[in-house]
Each structure stands twice: as C-alpha cells, then as structure tokens.
C-alpha cells in the first residue's frame, strides 16, 4: 500500500522507504505543519536511531528547533506535544508491525493528529518532488543538532507522575495480575506503575523475540494467558510495541475483545474525573458522551446507554477519533483495536491510562466477589460476535456491492451508517463492511443474537465477498 497511510507513515524499511525518504519527510513537515518547535521520540526498533537521525536532519535543515526525548512510548510524545506547547511532533515507530518495519506518527499543536487527508498527502507530494529534483543523500550517521527538554525532571519521570496522579493505583494492591510489555516501550514504566505484578518481556528489544508486538494476534497472547492460568491470577494486561494500546485476558486466560471494555473505561474515567461538571452532567440528564468506532459491539453500546452515557459513533483510527472527542466534548472512548482516548489526556490515546482504569474496575469487582469474566458477562453475553474477519480481494468496491446486495436477505434494515464503510443494523444483529486504511484488506464484522444466526450470516456474507 506504500509508505503513506491514512493515519501515519509506515512500512518495511528498505522496501517501502529508506533514510532518504525520511530525510525528505523531515524537510517537508515544517512546510506543511506550520511552526518552529518540534518534538521527536522513538521506539526500540533496530532502525529507529537511524530513522530519527535522518528525520531530525531534515527538520533542522528546514529551520525547525528539534527537541529529542529519546526512547519513549507514542502516548508520551502526544502528552509532551500538548503539555509543553510544541508546534509539531513525530514519533518514530511502526507500532505493532513486524520488526522489519518502521514509520512516523505526526502530530501538530495540541497533539492533534496529522493524517493523509489533512497534511500527509501534501508531505507525500513534496517528498516525491524532492526525489525528482534533489540529489540523493548519503546515509552516513547524521548526528543532527538537537536539544533536550529544559524541564529539570526527565520526561519519563514527569509522565509517570502524571499517570500516577490520574490513576487509582492503590486499588491494584488487591489484584494479582501479569503485565506483558511485548519487549516494547511499556518496559519503560512497567516496574514503577505496576509494583507487585508478574512482568513479562519487560526488556526493550526491537527484534521482539518473545512474540509479535501486536496483541490482537492470538499467538502474541499465548504466553500471558498461560501465566495467568498457571499462577491463578485475576487477569493479564498486554501492551503493543509502542504502548498506545492495552489489551486484557481474564482469569481463565481468555481474550477480552477491546470494544467490550469501552463501558468499563467510561465508568472508571467518570469515577476518577476531577471535573465536577462532568459528574454533575450525568445527574442532570445531560449524559456524558463516549466515542466508539463503527465496529463496536451492540452490547457495549447498549451498556453505555444503560450506564447513563451518550455513545457517539466515529470512523476507525486515531486521526478521526482525536478531533471528534474534542469537537463533541466526549469524556473518553475506545476502539475495537484497543485504543482508548481520554479528554484529560488531551483527547489522545494512552495504553497505560486505559490499563490502570480497567484494572481499577476489576479490583472493584473482586472486592464484590466477582471475577473479571463475571464482571464482563452482562456486556459480552448479549450477542454472538464474529470479531473482525479479513479478506484479500482484488476489487474491493465490487465485493462491497455484493455484500450490500446479499445483506437484503438478512431482514429489514433498521438503520445504516456510512461514515466508515457500511454498518447495517437489523433487529437480530448488525454487520460492518469496510476497507482497511492501513492494510490491503476488506474487513467484515458480524454480530447476532445467537451463535447459530451468526454462523449463517457469516457464511452468507463471506460467500458474497469471495464470489468470482
């Protein structure tokens, strides 16, 4: 799909992009994202130091003042971009992608994302123009001029202090749980934020030797699931490579689909909020808004309403979620992929804040004599859910047309959303069909009242997608 994606720039190093590409991105960014002060951070991938060097060289030659905070999590870059008033920032990371990949996540002032539709398209144009008109750059170590943060406290200590202030970590003393850092950037804070937890893969290693840095893959969760079962723990938390996502397994080692946890995050965030106007709004029937993406379970949406929240559906991806959470004044929100957004965190996603919030609710349930799975049962048990099913098809538009045609046989359509592909609602369930913004897939998700009905719908819709 190329280096430039809907939400960021990402691909296989040496195939989809090289250091020359990154240097040209650095030259182009200040022209597109106006402002002089830039923040840069990076993950632990083997190529991240070289990518950082090439990026900073380009930014500096374009006239930017660059502050390098070194190895960090992606949410740390978001946090300091907004907290310290930078005009723009770049996180060098490929997030949960394989070790061979790397990339760049760009934000502008106040940590608003820069996606393809609002800036990266122009960056791509400038990079291609420069590639035609500029000489090829050498790929020697660049040692670009940077400065460190002027605040005497280290970025990591400041970040952890903020997280501790906004998390009820005292309740976690009553939980027994494991934390899997995936050999990624969660390793920076795991010991301090989760004292007493069983820590797994908590040494940063960009080759990700233990398992994939993508917790949505079942194989990536096998280790923590086994540890939770063998040690009889209450739950397990697993972070992705750059720690912007947190996912959970319950006391049985079973994966908890992230969208089911959106109501849990909402409850914990409301309880933890120091903003009294938010707390009072629930009592005055002015329901706090919670954002969720188009793939979210109807069970989660119904639970939000029952808890006194107003669900707001948004397109998939942080480039869409972050501006909307600010626009509608939402308290927080989440996605099927495990991103959770918080108004108090500048509308950005934080895997760490999500983890502590969810853990606090699990601890509360334990104090009431409930296991994690028992706590989730009222949300999870309402419908049978397929999870996201990926299809590689040549003509995605034709496949979507076939799905829409065969969907007429599922029953009477009660409502439809077209903000990101199609979400079609029926009395017995709903379906979502959409093109991935980051991978070459067509994605189908189906939810029905019963497993038998789910099986029939999935078979019918999958047949339509794969029809020749």
Topology:
Layout: E1 9-12, H1 19-32, E2 37-42, H2 48-61, E3 65-71, H3 74-83, E4 88-92, E5 101-108, H4 120-133, H5 155-165, E6 177-180, H6 190-193, E7 198-200, H7 218-231, E8 235-239, E9 246-249, E10 255-256, H8 262-272, H9 276-283, E11 289-293, H10 298-306, E12 310-314, H11 318-327, E13 332-334, E14 340-342, E15 348-349, H12 351-367, H13 372-380, E16 384-385, E17 389-391, H14 396-406, E18 413-417, E19 422-426, E20 429-435, E21 442-448, H15 451-466
Parallel strand pairs: 2-3, 2-4, 6-7, 6-8, 11-12, 11-13
Antiparallel strand pairs: 1-5, 4-5, 8-9, 9-10, 13-14, 14-15, 16-21, 17-21, 18-19, 19-20, 20-21
Summed up:
The chain is α/β, with parallel strands linked by helices. It is 37% helix and 20% strand. The protein has 15 helices and 21 strands.
Helix content: 25-40%
CATH topology assignment of the largest domain? Alpha-D-Glucose-1,6-Bisphosphate, Chain A, domain 3
Helix count from the secondary structure assignment: 15
The major pleated sheet works out as: 6 strands, antiparallel
What do we call the CATH homologous superfamily of the largest domain?
Alpha-D-Glucose-1,6-Bisphosphate, subunit A, domain 3
Give the class from helix and strand content and strand pairing.
alpha/beta
Strand content: 15-25%
- Mean pLDDT reading: 92
Distance between the termini: 23 Å
Taken from the alpha-carbon principal axes, the silhouette is globular
CATH class of the largest domain: Alpha Beta
* CA radius of gyration: 22 Å
Mind telling me which CATH architecture of the largest domain this is? 3-Layer(aba) Sandwich
Would you report the number of β strands? 21
> How many domains make up the coordinates?
4
Could you list the spans in which at least 5 consecutive residues all have pLDDT below 50? 134-142, 275-284
């Amino acid at each position: 799909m190329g280096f430039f994606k809907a939400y960021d720039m990402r691909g296989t190093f040496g195939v989809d992009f090289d250091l020359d590409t990154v240097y040209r991105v650095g030259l182009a960014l200040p022209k597109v994202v106006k402002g002089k002060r830039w923040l840069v951070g990076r993950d632990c991938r083997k190529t991240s130091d070289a990518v950082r060097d090439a990026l900073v060289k380009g930014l500096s030659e374009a006239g930017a003042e660059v502050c390098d905070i070194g190895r960090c999590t992606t949410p740390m870059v978001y946090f300091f971009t907004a907290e310290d008033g930078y005009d723009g920032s770049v996180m060098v990371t490929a997030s949960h992608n394989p070790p061979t990949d790397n990339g760049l996540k760009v934000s502008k002032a106040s940590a608003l994302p820069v996606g393809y539709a609002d800036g990266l398209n122009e960056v791509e144009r400038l990079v291609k123009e420069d590639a035609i008109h500029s000489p090829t750059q050498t790929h020697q170590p660049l040692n670009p001029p940077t400065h460190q943060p002027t605040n005497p406290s280290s970025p990591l200590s400041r970040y952890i202090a903020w997280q501790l202030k906004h998390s009820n970590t005292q309740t976690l003393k009553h939980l027994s749980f494991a934390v899997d850092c995936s050999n990624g950037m969660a390793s920076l804070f795991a010991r301090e934020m989760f004292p007493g937890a069983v820590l797994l893969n908590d040494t940063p290693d960009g080759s990700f030797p233990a398992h994939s840095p993508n917790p949505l893959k079942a194989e990536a969760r096998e280790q923590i699931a086994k540890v939770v079962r063998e040690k009889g723990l209450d739950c397990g938390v697993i972070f992705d490579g750059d720690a912007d996502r947190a996912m959970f397994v319950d006391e049985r080692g079973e994966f908890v689909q992230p969208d089911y946890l959106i109501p849990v995050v909402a409850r914990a965030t409301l309880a933890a909020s120091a903003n009294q106007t938010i707390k009072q709004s629930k009592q005055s029937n002015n329901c706090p808004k919670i954002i969720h993406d188009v793939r979210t379970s109807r069970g989660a949406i119904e639970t939000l309403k029952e808890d006194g929240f107003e669900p707001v559906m948004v397109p998939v991806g942080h480039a869409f979620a972050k501006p909307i959470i600010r626009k509608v004044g939402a308290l927080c929100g989440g996605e099927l992929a495990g991103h959770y957004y918080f108004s108090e965190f500048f509308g950005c996603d934080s895997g760490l804040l999500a983890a502590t919030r969810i853990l606090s609710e699990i601890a509360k349930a334990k104090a009431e004599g409930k296991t994690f799975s028992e706590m989730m049962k009222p949300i999870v048990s309402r419908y049978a859910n397929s999870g996201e099913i990926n299809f590689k098809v040549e003509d995605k538009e034709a496949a979507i047309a076939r799905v829409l045609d065969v969907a007429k046989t599922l029953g009477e359509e009660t409502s439809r959303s077209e903000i990101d592909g199609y979400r079609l609602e029926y009395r017995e369930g709903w379906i979502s069909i959409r093109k991935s913004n980051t991978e070459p897939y067509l994605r189908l998700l189906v939810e029905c009242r019963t497993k038998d009905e789910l099986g029939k719908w999935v078979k019918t819709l999958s047949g339509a997608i794969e029809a020749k």
